[in-house]
Design brief:
Order of helices and strands: HEHEEHEEHHHEHHHEHHHEEHEEHHEEH
Bound molecules: cytidine-5'-monophosphate
CATH class of the domain at 3-136: Alpha Beta
Radius of gyration: 22 Å
Largest sheet: 6 strands, mixed
CATH topology of the domain at 3-136: inorganic pyrophosphatase (n-terminal core)
Shape: globular
């Protein structure tokens, strides 16, 4: 059986189900997966409902209903099959739609997972889309949502654009459907629909451009020096997508010259990007990256259903609520970033860590960790711990690193899941970004163990060899 056989079998299983519960993750990819599956299932006239879960772990398992409905776990489940077994689910009532690493389990649930087939640059929304399309080819309008999920899950980051079947099948379907425009050689920069250009440039550090990155005033002067108009007549700051192609070319070539003058490579200056002509200009709905942030803001602040409603077309009260959450999300992340940088991290040989206590919700510390890393020593993975309000005996851990470090053999998913299991906790994720829950009393030992595991991954001799 190949991946597409699994996709087809899943589509048939879903079509035959009488009543379905979708259990999905609260991040952008989880919300996109849920929106795709629930629309495909709704169009097939199968009764269904959705439950969003922060993470599948013992604390949250009671949120998964014990009723007679068929359960689809989306963007989670592969790494937690033992929990499904403990909750008593049979193999006949579960389908897992995921892209995370599977954990061995005595009961093998039905699963559509792109990862074992070598599709490492596909997210759960990509898998969900392929299933939706196998259910009915009329579902190709949902390719746009799949692109948002994939971009939100960083599938385009390393390669400066989507690749593999996500690019060849899903992006192509979306282009044919005309609700997505592909920009093959666009500026590789965040905030191109909503941020004044100088701020987009200053907040971007991939690539890091000396004099511009982390330097709003420097970015403003750079644009002025190159004769680029930055404001409208009434003083509103222009965003990247508003600039005519000739201005965009001038800016890109000036940025390339700046990189070359600093002896830096230019290969990450351009990326393939995805914008949405059917959405209003200068809003976060206008491109895949900013849309994904909006969904993340909804999910991480306990309103994933709002994100889902927006993907299904709501532009009224739910959209206004999402805009409000996005502003709050940004403000709290800025605060968290400042807190990490002001407080400072503790450096061990193979990682750097900080405990932020109960100051920030556990759903956003990973995002803050990722942003802080680019301002710290990015050669060492960062580990952030925080309290879990629902359970004073638990600690949430988030880790982030860079593609460069992953290329050297570092695998955060493996380190965090090995170390957390050793203390009766549980975790997972990806090589570049992973998370876990651990017992609070094990915090110090846990950090030391992760440090040792990372050292082993980097080829350092373990304690037995010293
Ligand atoms: O929570 P955070 O943003 O740090 O999560 C990073 C990655 O780790 C995500 O892919 C998430 O699904 C995964 N994770 C996990 N188990 C946890 C926490 C996070 O698999 N307990």
């Amino acid at each position: 059986m190949g991946f597409y056989d699994d996709v087809k079998a899943a589509a048939e299983t879903i079509a035959a189900a009488g009543n379905i519960t979708i259990i999905s993750h609260i991040d952008a990819d989880g919300i996109a997966s849920e929106a795709i599956l629930s629309q495909a299932i709704g169009r097939a006239e199968i009764p269904h409902r959705s439950v969003f879960i922060r993470q599948l772990e013992p604390l949250t398992m009671p949120q998964v209903p014990l009723d007679t409905s068929f359960k689809i776990f989306a963007d989670l489940g592969a790494g937690q099959q033992n929990l499904l077994e403990e909750r008593g689910f049979s193999q006949h009532e579960v389908l897992i739609v995921d892209h995370h690493v599977s954990q061995p389990c005595t009961r093998q649930y039905r699963q559509v997972n792109c990862l074992p087939y070598g599709h490492g640059k596909m997210s759960a929304a990509g898998v969900s889309y392929l299933i939706a399309k196998a259910m009915d080819t009329a579902n190709t309008d949902l390719a746009k949502t799949a692109i948002i999920g994939n971009v939100g899950d960083m599938m385009a980051r390393e390669t400066c654009g989507l690749v593999g079947p996500v690019r060849d099948i899903i992006v192509e379907d979306a282009v044919l459907h005309r609700n997505v425009e592909v920009h093959r050689r666009d500026l590789n920069c965040y905030g191109t629909a909503t941020r004044p250009l100088y701020l987009s440039l200053a907040y971007n550090d991939d690539p890091f451009i000396r004099g511009i990155s982390n330097n709003p005033e420097g970015a403003k002067q750079f644009l002025r020096r190159h004769g680029i108009r930055q404001q409208t007549k009434d003083g509103r700051w222009l965003v990247w997508e508003e600039y005519p192609p000739d201005d965009q070319k001038t800016i890109i070539s000036a940025l390339a010259q700046q990189l070359i003058a600093n002896g830096e490579p230019v290969d990450r200056l351009l990326a393939e990007t995805y914008s949405f002509p059917d959405e209003p200009v200068r809003t976060p709905l206008r491109n895949a990256q900013e849309y994904a942030t909006l969904l993340n803001a909804c999910g991480r602040w306990a309103r994933p259903h709002v994100g889902s409603a927006i993907l299904k077309g709501d532009r009224g009260s739910q959209y206004r609520e999402a805009e409000h959450m996005l502003n709050n999300h940004r403000a709290v992340i800025r605060d968290l970033l400042g807190y990490i940088l002001d407080t400072g991290v503790t450096e061990l040989e193979w990682l750097q860590y900080i405990h932020v206590g109960a100051k920030y919700p556990d759903t956003i510390v990973g995002i803050g960790a990722g942003m802080a890393l680019s301002k710290l020593n990015s050669a060492k993975p960062i580990l952030v711990m925080c309290s879990v309000p629902e359970d004073p005996n638990l600690t949430k851990v988030s880790m982030r690193t860079t593609e460069r470090v992953v290329a050297r053999g570092i695998d955060l998913q493996q380190a965090i899941s090995d170390a957390s299991t050793a203390y009766g906790g549980g975790g997972g994720g990806h090589r570049i970004a992973a998370g876990a829950f651990i017992p609070k009393i094990a915090e110090q030992e846990f950090v030391i163990r992760v440090n040792r595991l990372l050292g082993e991954q980097a080829g350092a001799p373990g304690p037995d060899h010293r």
